[in-house]
Protein backbone atom coordinates (compact mmCIF):
# COMPACT_ATOMS: atom_id res chain seq x y z
CA UNK A 1 0.00 0.00 0.00
CA UNK A 2 1.24 3.50 -0.61
CA UNK A 3 -0.12 6.98 -0.06
CA UNK A 4 0.22 8.14 -3.67
CA UNK A 5 -2.06 5.36 -4.92
CA UNK A 6 -4.54 6.24 -2.15
CA UNK A 7 -4.51 9.95 -3.09
CA UNK A 8 -5.01 9.06 -6.76
CA UNK A 9 -7.87 6.74 -5.90
CA UNK A 10 -9.69 9.51 -4.04
CA UNK A 11 -8.87 12.00 -6.81
CA UNK A 12 -10.66 9.62 -9.21
CA UNK A 13 -13.70 9.53 -6.88
CA UNK A 14 -13.16 5.89 -5.87
CA UNK A 15 -13.89 4.61 -2.38
CA UNK A 16 -11.06 3.77 -0.01
CA UNK A 17 -11.11 0.44 1.82
CA UNK A 18 -11.08 0.06 5.61
CA UNK A 19 -7.43 -1.12 5.38
CA UNK A 20 -6.43 1.90 3.30
CA UNK A 21 -8.00 4.31 5.79
CA UNK A 22 -6.30 2.50 8.68
CA UNK A 23 -3.00 2.80 6.79
CA UNK A 24 -3.50 6.56 6.27
CA UNK A 25 -4.39 7.33 9.90
CA UNK A 26 -1.62 5.21 11.42
CA UNK A 27 1.08 6.37 9.03
CA UNK A 28 0.14 10.04 9.25
CA UNK A 29 0.27 9.85 13.04
CA UNK A 30 3.74 8.31 12.89
CA UNK A 31 4.78 10.96 10.29
CA UNK A 32 5.57 8.33 7.64
CA UNK A 33 2.92 10.08 5.57
CA UNK A 34 3.97 13.72 5.26
CA UNK A 35 1.85 16.84 5.79
CA UNK A 36 1.92 17.66 2.07
CA UNK A 37 0.62 14.18 1.18
CA UNK A 38 -2.10 14.30 3.84
CA UNK A 39 -3.12 17.81 2.69
CA UNK A 40 -3.53 16.50 -0.83
CA UNK A 41 -5.68 13.61 0.35
CA UNK A 42 -7.79 15.89 2.57
CA UNK A 43 -8.46 18.21 -0.38
CA UNK A 44 -9.46 15.22 -2.54
CA UNK A 45 -11.85 14.14 0.25
CA UNK A 46 -13.25 17.67 0.50
CA UNK A 47 -13.87 17.80 -3.25
CA UNK A 48 -15.04 14.23 -3.86
CA UNK A 49 -16.61 13.24 -0.55
CA UNK A 50 -16.67 9.88 1.21
CA UNK A 51 -19.16 7.02 1.41
CA UNK A 52 -20.76 6.24 4.76
CA UNK A 53 -18.48 3.21 5.14
CA UNK A 54 -15.39 5.34 4.53
CA UNK A 55 -16.60 7.83 7.17
CA UNK A 56 -17.24 4.98 9.66
CA UNK A 57 -13.69 3.68 9.12
CA UNK A 58 -12.14 7.14 9.37
CA UNK A 59 -13.99 7.78 12.65
CA UNK A 60 -13.06 4.37 14.09
CA UNK A 61 -9.33 4.76 13.45
CA UNK A 62 -9.22 8.36 14.61
CA UNK A 63 -11.02 7.43 17.85
CA UNK A 64 -8.66 4.53 18.54
CA UNK A 65 -5.56 6.66 17.79
CA UNK A 66 -5.58 7.85 21.43
CA UNK A 67 -6.97 7.01 24.83
CA UNK A 68 -10.60 5.83 25.18
CA UNK A 69 -12.20 6.90 28.46
CA UNK A 70 -14.38 4.49 30.38
CA UNK A 71 -17.21 6.42 32.03
CA UNK A 72 -19.14 3.28 33.00
CA UNK A 73 -18.31 3.72 36.74
CA UNK A 74 -20.54 6.82 36.57
CA UNK A 75 -23.61 4.74 35.64
CA UNK A 76 -25.87 5.07 32.64
CA UNK A 77 -27.25 8.59 33.01
CA UNK A 78 -24.16 10.40 31.74
CA UNK A 79 -24.88 12.84 28.93
CA UNK A 80 -22.46 14.83 26.79
CA UNK A 81 -23.15 17.82 24.56
CA UNK A 82 -21.23 19.37 21.74
CA UNK A 83 -21.69 22.38 19.52
CA UNK A 84 -20.19 22.62 16.06
CA UNK A 85 -19.12 26.15 16.99
CA UNK A 86 -20.63 29.60 16.81
CA UNK A 87 -20.31 33.24 17.79
CA UNK A 88 -21.31 34.11 21.35
CA UNK A 89 -21.98 30.42 22.01
CA UNK A 90 -21.85 30.17 25.80
CA UNK A 91 -24.54 27.46 25.98
CA UNK A 92 -22.33 24.91 27.79
CA UNK A 93 -21.88 27.33 30.73
CA UNK A 94 -25.66 27.49 31.11
CA UNK A 95 -26.78 24.04 30.01
CA UNK A 96 -24.29 21.97 32.05
CA UNK A 97 -25.49 23.28 35.47
CA UNK A 98 -29.17 23.17 34.44
CA UNK A 99 -28.91 19.52 33.38
CA UNK A 100 -26.83 18.57 36.45
CA UNK A 101 -29.39 20.25 38.73
CA UNK A 102 -32.03 17.92 37.20
CA UNK A 103 -30.08 14.86 38.38
CA UNK A 104 -28.28 14.00 35.13
CA UNK A 105 -24.50 13.56 35.05
CA UNK A 106 -22.70 15.93 32.68
CA UNK A 107 -19.21 14.86 31.69
CA UNK A 108 -17.92 17.69 29.55
CA UNK A 109 -14.51 17.93 27.99
CA UNK A 110 -14.26 21.11 25.96
CA UNK A 111 -11.82 22.88 23.69
CA UNK A 112 -10.37 26.31 23.08
CA UNK A 113 -11.48 28.68 20.35
CA UNK A 114 -9.71 29.21 17.07
CA UNK A 115 -10.63 31.75 14.44
CA UNK A 116 -13.96 33.56 14.71
CA UNK A 117 -15.63 31.03 17.04
CA UNK A 118 -14.98 30.86 20.78
CA UNK A 119 -14.21 27.87 23.01
CA UNK A 120 -15.71 26.97 26.38
CA UNK A 121 -12.31 26.45 28.01
CA UNK A 122 -11.22 30.03 27.20
CA UNK A 123 -14.46 31.33 28.66
CA UNK A 124 -13.98 29.33 31.88
CA UNK A 125 -10.33 30.39 32.10
CA UNK A 126 -11.49 34.00 32.21
CA UNK A 127 -12.81 33.21 35.72
CA UNK A 128 -9.86 33.85 38.06
CA UNK A 129 -8.35 30.64 39.53
CA UNK A 130 -10.79 28.31 37.71
CA UNK A 131 -9.03 24.98 37.14
CA UNK A 132 -9.62 23.73 33.59
CA UNK A 133 -7.04 20.94 33.87
CA UNK A 134 -8.66 18.17 35.90
CA UNK A 135 -6.99 14.78 35.99
CA UNK A 136 -9.09 11.83 34.90
CA UNK A 137 -9.69 10.83 38.53
CA UNK A 138 -10.58 14.38 39.55
CA UNK A 139 -13.01 14.56 36.61
CA UNK A 140 -14.77 11.31 37.55
CA UNK A 141 -14.82 12.08 41.30
CA UNK A 142 -16.27 15.53 40.74
CA UNK A 143 -19.08 14.17 38.54
CA UNK A 144 -19.83 11.58 41.23
CA UNK A 145 -19.96 14.35 43.87
CA UNK A 146 -21.86 17.16 42.13
CA UNK A 147 -23.07 15.66 38.79
CA UNK A 148 -20.98 17.97 36.62
CA UNK A 149 -17.40 18.74 35.63
CA UNK A 150 -16.01 20.73 32.71
CA UNK A 151 -12.38 20.24 31.82
CA UNK A 152 -9.95 20.68 28.97
CA UNK A 153 -9.83 17.68 26.68
CA UNK A 154 -6.87 15.56 27.74
CA UNK A 155 -3.88 15.63 25.42
CA UNK A 156 -4.14 12.02 24.36
CA UNK A 157 -7.77 11.88 23.19
CA UNK A 158 -8.17 11.15 19.42
CA UNK A 159 -4.55 12.00 18.64
CA UNK A 160 -5.05 11.62 14.89
CA UNK A 161 -7.87 14.17 14.95
CA UNK A 162 -5.64 16.67 16.72
CA UNK A 163 -2.97 16.38 14.04
CA UNK A 164 -5.41 16.28 11.11
CA UNK A 165 -7.52 19.18 12.43
CA UNK A 166 -4.45 21.41 12.76
CA UNK A 167 -3.54 20.60 9.16
CA UNK A 168 -7.11 21.19 7.91
CA UNK A 169 -7.12 24.55 9.62
CA UNK A 170 -4.23 25.80 7.48
CA UNK A 171 -5.05 24.03 4.20
CA UNK A 172 -8.63 25.16 3.56
CA UNK A 173 -10.03 21.70 4.30
CA UNK A 174 -12.16 22.36 7.39
CA UNK A 175 -15.50 22.66 5.59
CA UNK A 176 -16.01 19.05 4.56
CA UNK A 177 -18.93 17.04 5.95
CA UNK A 178 -17.06 13.66 6.13
CA UNK A 179 -14.10 15.34 7.82
CA UNK A 180 -16.24 17.30 10.31
CA UNK A 181 -18.36 14.24 11.15
CA UNK A 182 -15.36 11.95 11.72
CA UNK A 183 -13.52 14.65 13.70
CA UNK A 184 -16.38 15.35 16.11
CA UNK A 185 -17.54 11.76 16.51
CA UNK A 186 -14.05 10.30 16.98
CA UNK A 187 -13.61 12.60 20.00
CA UNK A 188 -17.06 11.79 21.33
CA UNK A 189 -16.45 8.04 21.07
CA UNK A 190 -13.13 8.46 22.88
CA UNK A 191 -14.70 10.57 25.62
CA UNK A 192 -16.95 7.72 26.59
CA UNK A 193 -20.50 9.09 27.08
CA UNK A 194 -23.21 6.91 25.57
CA UNK A 195 -25.78 9.70 25.24
CA UNK A 196 -25.06 12.82 23.25
CA UNK A 197 -26.86 16.01 22.22
CA UNK A 198 -25.24 17.75 19.26
CA UNK A 199 -25.98 21.40 18.53
CA UNK A 200 -25.37 21.66 14.79
CA UNK A 201 -25.03 25.33 13.96
CA UNK A 202 -26.22 26.55 10.57
CA UNK A 203 -25.73 29.99 9.02
CA UNK A 204 -23.38 32.88 8.41
CA UNK A 205 -21.51 32.54 11.72
CA UNK A 206 -21.18 28.74 11.50
CA UNK A 207 -19.00 26.24 9.64
CA UNK A 208 -22.09 24.88 7.90
CA UNK A 209 -23.88 27.55 5.92
CA UNK A 210 -27.05 25.81 4.72
CA UNK A 211 -29.73 23.48 6.05
CA UNK A 212 -29.18 20.66 3.52
CA UNK A 213 -25.52 20.32 4.50
CA UNK A 214 -26.45 20.49 8.19
CA UNK A 215 -29.00 17.68 7.70
CA UNK A 216 -26.42 15.55 5.93
CA UNK A 217 -23.88 16.15 8.71
CA UNK A 218 -26.46 15.38 11.40
CA UNK A 219 -27.59 12.14 9.71
CA UNK A 220 -24.10 10.74 9.36
CA UNK A 221 -23.22 11.64 12.98
CA UNK A 222 -26.37 9.85 14.17
CA UNK A 223 -25.36 6.78 12.11
CA UNK A 224 -21.83 6.86 13.54
CA UNK A 225 -23.43 7.05 16.99
CA UNK A 226 -25.57 3.96 16.29
CA UNK A 227 -22.53 1.97 15.19
CA UNK A 228 -20.77 2.89 18.43
CA UNK A 229 -23.64 2.41 20.88
CA UNK A 230 -24.11 6.16 21.39
CA UNK A 231 -27.61 7.60 21.36
CA UNK A 232 -27.36 10.88 19.44
CA UNK A 233 -29.86 13.73 19.06
CA UNK A 234 -28.95 16.52 16.64
CA UNK A 235 -30.53 19.93 17.08
CA UNK A 236 -30.01 22.11 14.02
CA UNK A 237 -29.92 25.73 15.18
CA UNK A 238 -29.69 29.12 13.52
CA UNK A 239 -26.27 30.81 13.62
CA UNK A 240 -26.88 33.78 11.34
CA UNK A 241 -26.93 36.19 14.26
CA UNK A 242 -24.79 35.93 17.42
CA UNK A 243 -26.15 33.98 20.37
CA UNK A 244 -27.22 36.44 23.03
CA UNK A 245 -25.75 39.92 23.40
CA UNK A 246 -22.20 39.30 24.61
CA UNK A 247 -19.20 38.04 22.62
CA UNK A 248 -15.85 37.51 24.38
CA UNK A 249 -14.81 35.35 27.27
CA UNK A 250 -15.55 37.10 30.60
CA UNK A 251 -18.41 38.99 28.94
CA UNK A 252 -19.98 35.66 28.00
CA UNK A 253 -19.54 34.30 31.54
CA UNK A 254 -21.36 37.41 32.81
CA UNK A 255 -24.22 36.80 30.37
CA UNK A 256 -24.44 33.13 31.39
CA UNK A 257 -24.74 34.24 35.04
CA UNK A 258 -27.44 36.72 34.07
CA UNK A 259 -29.49 33.92 32.54
CA UNK A 260 -28.98 31.44 35.37
CA UNK A 261 -29.40 33.96 38.20
CA UNK A 262 -31.81 36.55 36.83
CA UNK A 263 -33.64 34.38 34.30
CA UNK A 264 -32.92 36.81 31.47
CA UNK A 265 -35.22 35.84 28.61
CA UNK A 266 -34.40 35.69 24.89
CA UNK A 267 -33.28 33.39 22.11
CA UNK A 268 -30.16 32.24 23.97
CA UNK A 269 -32.25 31.21 26.99
CA UNK A 270 -34.72 29.41 24.70
CA UNK A 271 -31.91 27.48 23.04
CA UNK A 272 -30.45 26.49 26.41
CA UNK A 273 -33.87 25.27 27.60
CA UNK A 274 -34.24 23.20 24.41
CA UNK A 275 -30.77 21.64 24.65
CA UNK A 276 -31.15 20.97 28.38
CA UNK A 277 -34.57 19.36 27.96
CA UNK A 278 -33.24 16.90 25.37
CA UNK A 279 -30.25 16.08 27.58
CA UNK A 280 -32.46 15.54 30.63
CA UNK A 281 -34.91 13.39 28.61
CA UNK A 282 -32.00 11.22 27.43
CA UNK A 283 -30.34 11.01 30.82
CA UNK A 284 -33.42 10.27 32.92
CA UNK A 285 -35.19 8.28 30.16
CA UNK A 286 -38.29 10.45 30.41
CA UNK A 287 -40.25 12.17 27.67
CA UNK A 288 -39.33 15.62 26.39
CA UNK A 289 -42.30 17.47 27.95
CA UNK A 290 -41.61 16.06 31.39
CA UNK A 291 -37.92 16.93 31.02
CA UNK A 292 -38.72 20.49 29.94
CA UNK A 293 -40.98 20.98 32.98
CA UNK A 294 -38.12 19.90 35.24
CA UNK A 295 -35.66 22.18 33.45
CA UNK A 296 -37.94 25.22 33.77
CA UNK A 297 -38.61 24.49 37.46
CA UNK A 298 -34.92 24.21 38.27
CA UNK A 299 -34.06 27.33 36.32
CA UNK A 300 -36.75 29.33 38.07
CA UNK A 301 -36.29 28.02 41.62
CA UNK A 302 -32.55 28.80 41.61
CA UNK A 303 -31.32 25.17 41.66
CA UNK A 304 -29.52 25.60 38.32
CA UNK A 305 -27.75 28.78 39.44
CA UNK A 306 -26.78 27.10 42.72
CA UNK A 307 -25.37 24.18 40.70
CA UNK A 308 -23.35 26.68 38.63
CA UNK A 309 -21.94 28.21 41.82
CA UNK A 310 -21.13 24.72 43.13
CA UNK A 311 -19.31 23.89 39.88
CA UNK A 312 -17.29 27.13 39.97
CA UNK A 313 -16.37 26.59 43.65
CA UNK A 314 -15.40 22.93 43.10
CA UNK A 315 -13.02 23.99 40.33
CA UNK A 316 -11.66 26.86 42.51
CA UNK A 317 -13.01 29.75 40.42
CA UNK A 318 -13.98 33.18 41.74
CA UNK A 319 -16.76 34.89 39.77
CA UNK A 320 -16.58 38.00 41.96
CA UNK A 321 -13.39 38.94 40.15
CA UNK A 322 -14.21 38.62 36.45
CA UNK A 323 -11.66 40.67 34.48
CA UNK A 324 -12.74 43.95 32.92
CA UNK A 325 -10.95 45.81 30.15
CA UNK A 326 -9.33 49.25 30.36
CA UNK A 327 -10.96 50.65 27.23
CA UNK A 328 -14.61 50.81 26.39
CA UNK A 329 -15.77 52.31 23.09
CA UNK A 330 -19.43 53.02 22.43
CA UNK A 331 -20.33 52.57 18.78
CA UNK A 332 -23.13 54.89 17.76
CA UNK A 333 -25.33 54.58 14.74
CA UNK A 334 -25.87 57.27 12.16
CA UNK A 335 -28.94 55.58 10.70
CA UNK A 336 -32.50 55.35 11.88
CA UNK A 337 -34.76 52.30 11.68
CA UNK A 338 -35.16 48.70 12.80
CA UNK A 339 -32.25 46.26 12.98
CA UNK A 340 -32.99 43.57 10.38
CA UNK A 341 -29.75 41.61 10.49
CA UNK A 342 -26.55 41.26 12.53
CA UNK A 343 -23.63 39.48 10.87
CA UNK A 344 -22.36 36.90 13.39
CA UNK A 345 -19.26 36.07 11.34
CA UNK A 346 -18.09 39.69 11.09
CA UNK A 347 -18.63 40.23 14.82
CA UNK A 348 -16.71 37.03 15.56
CA UNK A 349 -13.78 38.30 13.50
CA UNK A 350 -13.94 41.74 15.14
CA UNK A 351 -14.00 40.19 18.61
CA UNK A 352 -11.00 38.02 17.73
CA UNK A 353 -9.03 41.10 16.62
CA UNK A 354 -9.94 42.93 19.84
CA UNK A 355 -8.08 40.15 21.68
CA UNK A 356 -10.92 37.78 22.62
CA UNK A 357 -9.77 35.05 20.23
CA UNK A 358 -6.66 33.65 18.63
CA UNK A 359 -5.53 34.47 15.13
CA UNK A 360 -2.78 31.85 15.61
CA UNK A 361 -2.86 28.86 17.95
CA UNK A 362 -0.12 30.23 20.22
CA UNK A 363 -1.70 33.71 20.67
CA UNK A 364 -2.48 34.90 24.21
CA UNK A 365 -6.12 35.73 24.88
CA UNK A 366 -7.34 38.96 26.44
CA UNK A 367 -10.09 37.47 28.61
CA UNK A 368 -11.87 40.78 29.13
CA UNK A 369 -12.02 41.79 25.45
CA UNK A 370 -15.13 41.53 23.33
CA UNK A 371 -18.37 43.11 22.25
CA UNK A 372 -21.71 43.78 23.89
CA UNK A 373 -24.64 44.32 21.56
CA UNK A 374 -26.71 47.11 23.07
CA UNK A 375 -29.45 46.51 20.52
CA UNK A 376 -30.68 43.35 18.86
CA UNK A 377 -32.89 42.21 15.98
CA UNK A 378 -35.99 44.39 15.47
CA UNK A 379 -34.93 47.01 18.05
CA UNK A 380 -35.57 50.54 16.80
CA UNK A 381 -32.58 52.88 16.46
CA UNK A 382 -32.47 56.67 16.46
CA UNK A 383 -29.44 58.47 15.04
CA UNK A 384 -26.79 58.62 17.79
CA UNK A 385 -27.99 55.52 19.71
CA UNK A 386 -25.30 53.15 20.95
CA UNK A 387 -25.62 49.98 18.90
CA UNK A 388 -22.72 48.08 20.48
CA UNK A 389 -19.93 48.57 23.00
CA UNK A 390 -16.42 47.38 22.40
CA UNK A 391 -14.19 46.22 25.28
CA UNK A 392 -10.45 45.84 24.85
CA UNK A 393 -7.09 46.46 26.48
CA UNK A 394 -5.72 47.60 23.13
CA UNK A 395 -5.65 51.34 22.58
CA UNK A 396 -7.37 51.72 19.25
CA UNK A 397 -6.65 55.04 17.49
CA UNK A 398 -8.97 54.51 14.59
CA UNK A 399 -11.94 52.29 15.21
CA UNK A 400 -12.81 51.25 11.71
CA UNK A 401 -16.06 49.35 12.15
CA UNK A 402 -17.43 47.59 9.08
CA UNK A 403 -20.74 49.32 8.41
CA UNK A 404 -22.24 46.18 6.88
CA UNK A 405 -22.37 44.35 10.25
CA UNK A 406 -25.86 45.66 10.94
CA UNK A 407 -28.63 45.89 8.37
CA UNK A 408 -31.11 48.62 9.25
CA UNK A 409 -34.43 49.21 7.54
CA UNK A 410 -37.65 51.13 8.00
CA UNK A 411 -39.57 47.86 8.53
CA UNK A 412 -39.26 45.18 11.17
CA UNK A 413 -38.00 41.85 9.84
CA UNK A 414 -39.64 38.46 10.24
CA UNK A 415 -37.69 36.81 13.07
CA UNK A 416 -35.83 33.72 11.90
CA UNK A 417 -36.51 30.40 13.60
CA UNK A 418 -33.93 29.49 16.23
CA UNK A 419 -34.49 25.72 16.27
CA UNK A 420 -34.49 24.65 12.64
CA UNK A 421 -34.90 20.89 12.96
CA UNK A 422 -34.38 18.03 15.38
CA UNK A 423 -33.01 14.71 14.10
CA UNK A 424 -32.66 11.45 16.03
N1 LIG B 1 -15.40 20.76 15.38
C1 LIG B 1 -14.57 19.69 15.40
O1 LIG B 1 -14.26 19.16 16.46
N2 LIG B 1 -14.10 19.22 14.24
C2 LIG B 1 -14.41 19.77 13.06
O2 LIG B 1 -13.95 19.29 12.04
C3 LIG B 1 -15.27 20.89 13.04
C4 LIG B 1 -15.77 21.36 14.23
Notable features of this structure?
single chain, 424 residues, alpha/beta, Transferase, Pyrimidine Nucleoside Phosphorylase, Chain A, domain 3, Pyrimidine Nucleoside Phosphorylase, Chain A, domain 2, Aldehyde Oxidoreductase, domain 3, six-stranded mixed sheet, 44% helix, binds uracil
Brief summary of the model shown:
The protein is built from 15 helices and 13 strands. The protein is an alpha/beta fold and 424 residues long. The chain folds into three domains: 3-49, Transferase, Pyrimidine Nucleoside Phosphorylase, Chain A, domain 3; 72-320, Pyrimidine Nucleoside Phosphorylase, Chain A, domain 2; 324-409, Aldehyde Oxidoreductase, domain 3.
What is the 3D form? globular
CATH architectural arrangement of the largest domain: 3-Layer(aba) Sandwich
Question: What can be said about the biggest beta sheet?
Answer: 6 strands, mixed
User: How many domains make up the 3D coordinates?
Assistant: 3
> Which regions are unreliable across 5 or more consecutive residues at pLDDT < 50?
none
Amino acid sequence: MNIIDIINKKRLKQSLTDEEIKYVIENYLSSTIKDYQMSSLLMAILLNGMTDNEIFSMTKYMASSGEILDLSPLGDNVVDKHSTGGVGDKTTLIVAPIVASCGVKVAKMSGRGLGHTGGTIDKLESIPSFNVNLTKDEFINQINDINVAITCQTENIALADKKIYALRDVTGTVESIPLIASSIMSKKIALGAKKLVLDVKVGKGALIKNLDDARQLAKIMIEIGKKNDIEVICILTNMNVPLGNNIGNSLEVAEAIDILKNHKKGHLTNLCIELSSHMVALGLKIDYDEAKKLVLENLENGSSYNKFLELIKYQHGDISKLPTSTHKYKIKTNSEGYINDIDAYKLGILSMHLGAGRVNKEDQIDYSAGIVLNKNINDYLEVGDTIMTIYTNKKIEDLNIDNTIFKISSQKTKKEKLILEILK
